[in-house]
Specification:
With about 240 residues, the chain is an alpha/beta fold. The chain has a single domain, classed as 3-Layer(aba) Sandwich (Rossmann fold), CATH 3.40.50. Helix content is about 35%, strand content about 25%. It has eight helices and eleven strands. The strands form two sheets. It has an eight-stranded mixed beta sheet. A three-stranded antiparallel beta sheet has the order 8-9-10. Strand 2, helix 3 and strand 3 form a beta-alpha-beta unit. It is globular. The N and C termini lie far apart (about 60 Å). The structure holds 5-O-phosphono-beta-D-ribofuranosylamine.
Length: about 240
């Protein structure tokens, strides 16, 4: 032992204590390609935390297999076994809380959440939506955008509030609508952008850089604009090595 005063020992011990790993629970209903994008980041130690459980309301969801494959606890909680939305969300809250998450990530979870659920986890739930919010809240966003003849579409990550697809936006990625674009081709391009921006938003949150405030989200303590951080078509295309 050196002759360093004991107070320094205490400080050294304190400084070397590892920070607790941030815990993430992901909710899905289907394929889980966004879940896969998050798993891939985790595999490369780039997520800033750990996905501790994946929960699906659809027992046959392919995303559950993706979770098992990655060694993540995969839980089927079928909504059809519950009489009401309130009863289901009550059960969902219990399963989620058992995993003590810092963050809940909705990745294609096709259910409307009750106010009780939203309030319980307010500020700790992110969702990804296939449009440049506030445009095209709700379903069938690609078809609606094409029918309107828009020149630009995209996706958004936002905090979940009681307003469906209406919480503060964190990050968006835009895509130019090409000549002869079909719903399938547009969906594919938007999906690729989803896989790009969702891990970024999750990492910001887990690193403590991203925070919810009722009037908007903040990044590094600065209020984000209504559209969040915006990735242009060109930026995203370069990241994705698109033609
Ligand atoms: C995505 O398009 C997402 O924007 C929406 O649901 C879909 C989920 O796709 N919320 P996947 O299951 O992640 O492939």
């Amino acid at each position: 032992m050196s002759d360093t005063p004991s107070t320094s020992d205490t400080l050294t011990d304190f400084a070397s204590e590892p920070a607790a790993t941030r815990r993430v629970v992901v909710l899905i209903s289907g394929s889980g390609s966004n879940l896969q994008a998050l798993i891939d980041e985790q595999t490369h130690d780039r997520l800033g935390g750990e996905i501790v459980a994946v929960i699906s309301n659809e027992p046959a969801a392919h995303g559950l297999a993706r979770a098992r494959e990655a060694g993540i606890d995969a839980v089927a909680l079928p909504h059809r076994e519950y009489d009401s939305r309130e009863a289901y969300d009550g059960a969902l809250i219990k399963v989620i809380e058992r995993h003590e998450p810092d963050l809940i990530v909705l990745a294609g979870f096709m259910r409307i959440l009750t106010p009780r659920f939203v309030q319980r986890f307010l500020g700790r739930v992110l969702n990804i939506h296939p449009s440049l919010l506030p445009a095209y809240q709700g379903l069938h966003t690609h078809a609606r955008a094409l029918a309107d003849g828009v020149v630009e579409h995209g996706c958004s990550v936002h905090f979940v509030t009681e307003e469906l697809d209406g919480g503060p936006v964190v990050i968006q990625a835009a895509v130019d609508v090409a000549e002869g674009e079909t719903e399938t081709s547009l969906k594919e391009k938007v999906h690729a952008r989803e896989h790009l921006i969702y891990p970024i938003a999750v990492k910001w949150f887990l690193e403590g850089r991203l925070q919810f405030a009722p009037r908007g989200a903040t990044l590094d303590g600065m209020p984000l604009p209504p559209q969040g951080v915006r990735l242009s078509h060109a930026d995203a295309a370069e990241e994705l090595d698109e033609e």
